[in-house]
Amino acid sequence: MKNPRLLVLGLLFLTQVTVSLGQNKKLDRFAFGSCNRQDAPQPLWKPILADRPDLWIWMGDNIYGDSPVMDTLRAKYARQNANPDYQLLKASIPIIGVWDDHDYGINDGDKRFAQKKESRDLMFDFLGMPADALERRREGGYSAHTYGTGDQQVKVILLDGRYFRDTLSRLDRQYQVNLTGQMLGDAQWKWLENELMTSTARVNFIVSGVQFLPTEHAYEKWANFPKEREKLLDLIARTGVQTPILMSGDRHIAEIMKLVDSRFPKGLYEVTASGLTHTWNGIAEEKNSFRVSNLIAKLNYGLASFDWAKDEVLIEIKGENGSIYAKQIIQLAKNK
Asked: Quick one: which of 144, 139, 142 has its CA closest to 160?
């Protein structure tokens, strides 16, 4: 029989491990997801591990904290860290991410949340952000990460849509449009413009807790701030960043979308992967004129796999037992 004390020490070690991935390390594939209850069964870590990703990206609602009490959030993060399968993931690959609202501390929260700085620090602790990291010395939870070199370079830009976001009003369960409010705040907008302008990556993933493209549904989305949504799309187009791909969570469903307009004649894709531990109780109809996949209401995560020889990335929505619910091949831009 194994020594119980050694087993406990081993689990404690795994809980604290933070695997780093150097900027010169090539990404062959990465996995991503959102909406994860720390106190619920988590069956997807095993298939995620079986896919052998080089990186995991949290896209929000990484725990369901929903409390202004930091000891409560800290305990819930600890519970997630104690999950044995998640510990295996932490011990094998690096993890990056950003929050949405439940892990922020308040459902549908915005810049008025009084504990946002303390909560941000707990999120960074959970992600293994170094104590001396630049990200800890500024306001907000946004960050950017670049992997690989040359024509195999990948950039991940994680946007914070909570810390600086202005208020939305709600009428009959429908969020009302805010024509003057901001999603990101001035400092984050300036940072984002610089990250896009200076990016040398072959493919650039831009991540937000809430969806970018949809305009029809009644819930939180970038389209609730239509000027901000257009500002973002204009910025992506104006900077000419190579192969931009949008990623989002929040909705407890998964879908792949595509916007085609004068700015993006070849199309701008968005993939929503949401529902690591729970999804809609049943499939309902929801109009989305940008959707190019099925609407998926099963436990899911996303997987991005690069075929550098073919100049393409395969985006998949996957679930239990390796099931594939949707997939989309996106051609990479020719390297500048």
From this structure: 142
The verdict on residue 33 lying in a domain is yes
Nearest to 169 by CA among 177, 157, 160: 177
Spatial neighbors of 40 by CB under 8 A, at least 6 apart, are 277, 278
pTM (two decimals): 0.92
CATH number at residue 43: 3.60.21.70
Higher pLDDT, 7 or 283: 283
Inter-residue contact 273 to 247 (CB < 8 Å): yes
Confidence bin at 151 (pLDDT 50/70/90): very high
- Which ranges in the chain belong to alpha helices (H)? 4-16, 45-50, 70-81, 84-92, 116-127, 186-197, 226-239
Inside any domain, residue 237 = yes
Using DSSP bridges, classify how beta strands 255-259 and 174-175 pair: parallel, antiparallel or unpaired: unpaired
Whether 139 contacts 163, CB under 8 Å: yes
Tell me which residue of 256, 248, 300, 257 sits closest to 279, measured CA to CA. Answer: 300
Is 9 part of a structural domain of the chain?
Answer: no
